[in-house]
Structures are given as C-alpha cells and as structure tokens.
Amino acid sequence: MAEIYGVVTFYSFFSLKPKGKYVIGCCLGTACYVKGAQQVIDKFSELLGIGPGETTEDGLFTIDALRCIGACGIAPAVSINGKVYPKMSVSQVDEVIAQYLLLEEKEVAGA
Fold it and tell me: What are the respective helix, strand and coil percentages of the chain, to the nearest 5?
C-alpha cells in the first residue's frame, strides 16, 4: 500500500481526488510566469470559485497548476483536456469558461 501511495503522490498525473470533466492546466513555468500566468490562474480561480488542485462542486472543472508544459514559445499556455490555448490573457478566461459551459449545456440538452 505504501508503495502505491508513493507512486500516486509522486507523479502529477495521478490524483487521490476525483478530477473534473474539464481539467484546466495552467503552466506556471518560468516563461509562462514572466508573461502573466499567475494572473491567468488567479482569474480562473476567481471565476470558478476554486483554487489550484480543487474541483468545482458540480464536478465540471478542476484547476491544476503545472510547472512546465513545454510550450514556452506560446507563453502563457493553458491546456484543457489536452487542447492548448496559446498566449492566454486574463481577458480571455471568461470566454474560455463560457465555451465549456455552452458545450455542457448542449450535451445536457441533447441527452
């Protein structure tokens, strides 16, 4: 049991808590940080009412603070379920969240 716990807590892609349907990975590596990534992750946190490592009560969104995603040329970078959003700005965060909420509405209406 201790060995499994060691592996799960060592690797960032494993989690002991359920993740949301949409996992927002905000890169906080040096290039992203210098170009305003902290303000971007703060805006996601403000809008969703959760901090990094937390999931919204409805289970839709999780915010993860990442150290580097290897996208320094398009910093600050955000990834949501593998889709990368380049040169993310604070002013774009509202629109990105709205897109996923609209997608969710369409899925619920179509079900």
Answer: 45, 15, 40
111 Cβ partners below 8 Å, 6+ apart? Answer: none
Name the residue with tokens 């592996």.
7
Tens-digit pLDDT profile for residues 15-24: 888 999 999 9
Helix locations, the chain, DSSP H: 2-10, 30-34, 37-48, 90-110
Q: Where do runs of H (alpha helix) occur along 1-89?
A: 2-10, 30-34, 37-48
Closest CA to 76 of 28, 24, 44: 28
pTM greater than 0.85: yes
Q: Residue 21: which residues within 8 A CB-CB, separation 6 or more?
A: 59, 60, 61, 104
Q: Which residues pair with 84 in a beta bridge?
A: 79
